[in-house]
Each structure stands twice: as structure tokens, then as C-alpha cells.
Amino acid sequence: LPLIAQQSVQEVLSAASLHDVVASYISLKRAGSGFKALCPFHAEKTPSFNVNPSRQVFKCFGCGVGGDVIHFVKEMEKTDFAGAVALLAERYNIRLRYTGGSSDAEDPVELYRIHETAQAFFRRALEQGRGGDAARRYLKERGVTHETAERFGLGYAPAEWDGLLKRLRAAGFSDGAIRRCGLVVTKEDSDHRYDRFRDRLIFPIRNTRGKVVAFGGRLLPEGQESGGKYINSPETPIFRKSRHLYGQDLLERGVESIVVVEGYFDVILPWQHGLRGFVAPMGTAFGPDHARLVRRWSRRCTLVFDADAAGQAASERGLDLLLETDLDLSVAALPEGPKDPADVIVGRGPEALRQVIASAPEMFDFLMERSIGRRDLSRTAEKAAAAGELLERIGRLEDPVRRDLLVQKLAARLKMDPGALRAGLKRSTPAARPARPEAPPPPSPLRKDACYLVRHLLDQPEAIPRARERLADGLGLPEADRLIRVMAALWGETGRLDATTLRARLAGPEELALLTDAQMMPDPAIDLDPQLESLAAQIQRRRLRERKEDLRRRMRQASGPERERIALELARLAAPERAS
Ligand SMILES: [Zn+2]
């Protein structure tokens, strides 16, 4: 498997701004020389997530997660190192190089360029192509203006087998890249290739930064093509169904609520009528990954279903998964009649759709009414069944305050005593509910000293050889010894010691954590030399004390010659202490 070249990783690290990247996910507040936020990796009420922009590191003092910008993206996007580097490379327009096998197609930038070329091809076919008139007529029928079509970049895939394929080859894209972009299909057991989208209206799917990552295609009413009414690009290195939403490129921060609909036109027509914040998942249900994505723009989110689908959705596990996220979710069911939001807009006007969304009940209320609505509450068994079903849902929530508020709501609705429901809740709460992350234990004095020393050496690497000499036996903390050894090697080889290169060379999580903690420390005093001496002396004293304690413990359990040997060693250790 090709690996991203170290040089490319460096390029990404020097181009990326940790502050900007973090701020694109969560809102940061200035605190001293850095920034603070509520941690995106654990639930908390007071911010313990810190960003140090000058050192390009972050650390959460609540759950202990910390590192550089690559680590942040890796955790945030639930991807691996290479995936995080690729996302950053794309954001900063850096072309990645690979080692251990050349592969242009692994390079996301190449895939973006293919999609740009394809996008221009489809646009041109809609505007000027011979077959484009049927697509233009269809758009007009749906009430989409020319301006809107342009804004969304709508296009047309001609009714040919290889129109796009020829265009991509003419533009010089490699065979590998064309194979991986998903826009061309290779027939099984042969080299024969043809365009995936033929004689279809084309919807470009863009990522948050506005780059086309995939396409959706709709059959035309007058068209000759067969196959699904809608088809999408398959998943590629730059397109994941669970992570992309149609319309996400048009979202703006501060939008009142994110509205999740089902089809392309349900995003396009509301936009044309001034309604903002509409997005649609593609070929999959709106899930927890999508929830994490939209949280960047708004905590409030409304799922819109048509009357039939709403009932079905209520019984699905999907909504439960969403209930567990920290989004403020509502569910809007369209009135009987119109099939989708686009129909509501065309038939009843944008105000009608706005009303449906504004009056959408909270998701729990929606689930509660669905569960209660199909039962006869005058019958004890049915009432108990409804209570049990809803308590089971409440029991999955992590936030105790939220759990209790919902219990009270349910009690009021069922005219029951909240205390009785609370008792039922305790029993239904699964034991396997993930626990809150434990706050990391306070660092030992030795680790604090090690942290302090590393912090010093990062700023004054010329002191590394002397520090190692002074602490020839090591610090007595394996990760610190390993970290300082790597620092010494890097400084010796290159005469430079920048933290990002250093980070890339470290293997263990303990070393990385120590480095992060050291970088998060306040600026050290200017004068290292006397401090280095006293610090080294302090570390040695601590080591010695720990060693002696260990020996005394062993002596108490030992006997015979073993005991004598330990006693001798203790005496030897005590000597220099007396001398000092
Ligand atoms: Zn945290």
C-alpha cells in the first residue's frame, strides 16, 4: 500500500492552522494567549478543551485527548492518519506524494480535478448540448429557474456511452484515476468501460468547501435510459455517503435550524424560495455521522418526512441513534397530500413549508405520540407497554438531566407518578451504556518534572546533550527517556528540533501525550542553565528515593544472602546522599 511521503505530511502540517481547522468544527473562545471550547470528544458543561495556536497543539484536560492538527482531524472525522492528512491536504490544496508504489489515483487532489472536469462537461451539455433541451424542459417543469440551476451547478449527462470517458482521457487523466473516480464503469471480465451517468439530469454533490466530490443523476421523463430513477456516484476516497449531505456547501453558520429532507429538489426548491439550511442524505438514512457534521452549523435539526414515511421512521432504530446525539432534534411530518417538501413549495408556497417546520415537535414528543397513539391507554397492559417502550429509549440517553426531564414529560402525558417511572428507568437502563470518560489521574511529581524538562529542551535543544549527560541513568520514566532519546537523535541529525517532525517520529501514545503536555505548558523562564541543573538534581533525588523505597520493600520480604545483598546496595545508595 502506498504511504504518504513524510515530506507531504510536513507540507500539510506547515500549511494547516490548528485554530482554523478546529474552528471549522466547534466554536472557540479566546482565553489568554490561546482558545478554549467545550470538548467535542466528551460531554461537559464547562470548557476544558484548550488550543495553543502558537505551538499548534490542543489538549482536553477533561478527557485527556490531545495532539496536533492531524490528530484532531483523525479523532473528529473518525478516520486514520492517512485519511486525516488527505482531508487536510484537500483543504489546503496540497498535492500529496506517496512512497512505496506510485499511485496518482490515491491522491485526492487528482480525484477533485477529475470531478471538476466532469462538472464542466455536464454543465456544458445542459447549457448547449443537443440532448440538453429535454433536461432544461424538465427543470422548467419542476419550477427551477435558470439562476438556481446555475447556483447548484446542475448539468446533463448526454445519452452516449463514452462522452465523459473521452473527455477525461483527452484531459490527460491516468487510467488508474479514471477507474477510481466512480464516474466510469468497467464491465466485469473485460476492459470495456462506459459512462456511469447517461441521459440523466446531473446534480453535483459538493463537500463543505464547495468542491465537487460526487454526482447524482435523475432519469428524464422523456428519456430512453433504464435503471433507477436516481443513481449516485459510488463511494470513493473523497465521497462517503455517511459523511456527505447534499446542500452542505450552502450551509452558513448561525442558520436557525438544519432541515433534513430526502431529495435533491427538496433542497433546491426551498433554497430558490429563500429557505436556508436544507440538506439531504444520499442513498442512506440521516445518521450519527451526519449529525456530527451538521452540528458545525447548528445544534437544532429538523427531520422532514412525508406522512407515510414518518410512521415508518418512528419505529426505526435510526431515530434512537439520533436521540443519543446532542442535537436538538425535531421531526416534521408533512400533511397528507404533498409527497415531499418540493411539492409543498410548488403547491402551497414556501410559507406553508416554513410553518410545517416551525411547528415540528421535538423528536421525543414525536416518538411518544407515535407510541401512545397506537395504544388504548385505558387498558393497563397497553399503558404499561407504552411506558416501557419509551423508558427504554430514555434509558439510552447519557445526560441525567435530559433523562429526568423526559421522564417528567412522559409522566405528565401518561398521568403517572414520575417517581414510579424513575424506578422503571433504573431497571431498563442497560449496564453497557458507555461510561463518561474518566478524568485522567493527576500526573506524578516525576512526570511533572519530565514535562518541564521536555518543555525546556524543545525551546533550547542545544542543552539536550548536557541534559542527557547529567541524567545518564535516565529519568526513571520510560516514555520520557524514549522521547528525549528521539529528540536527541533528531537534533543530532538535522540540527533542528521542530515539534511536528518530532511528533511524526514518535511511536508510542505515552510519548506523544508527554510531548503534548510539555507543549501545553506555560512559557519557561528565560534562563535554562541553572534550572536545568536544579531540575536534573531534583529528578535524580526522586529517582534515588524511589529506588531506596523499592529496595527496603524487597528487603522486608527477603532473607539470607538475598537480604544481605539488598542491604549492601542500600548502604551504597545512602552514601552519596549523606555526602550531598
Ligand atoms: Zn474532552
Topology (SSEs and partners):
Elements: E1 3-4, H1 6-15, H2 18-23, E2 29-31, E3 34-37, E4 49-52, E5 57-60, E6 66-67, H3 69-76, H4 81-91, E7 98-99, H5 108-127, H6 132-142, H7 146-151, E8 155-157, H8 163-170, H9 175-180, E9 184-186, E10 193-195, E11 200-206, E12 212-219, E13 230-232, E14 258-260, H10 264-272, E15 278-279, H11 288-294, E16 300-305, H12 307-314, H13 317-323, E17 328-333, H14 341-348, H15 350-358, H16 363-373, H17 380-395, H18 400-414, H19 418-428, H20 445-459, H21 464-470, H22 478-494, H23 499-505, H24 509-520, H25 528-557, H26 560-579
Helix pairs in contact: 3-4, 10-14, 14-15, 16-17, 17-18, 17-19, 18-19, 20-22, 20-24, 20-25, 22-24, 25-26
Bound molecules: zinc ion (ZN).
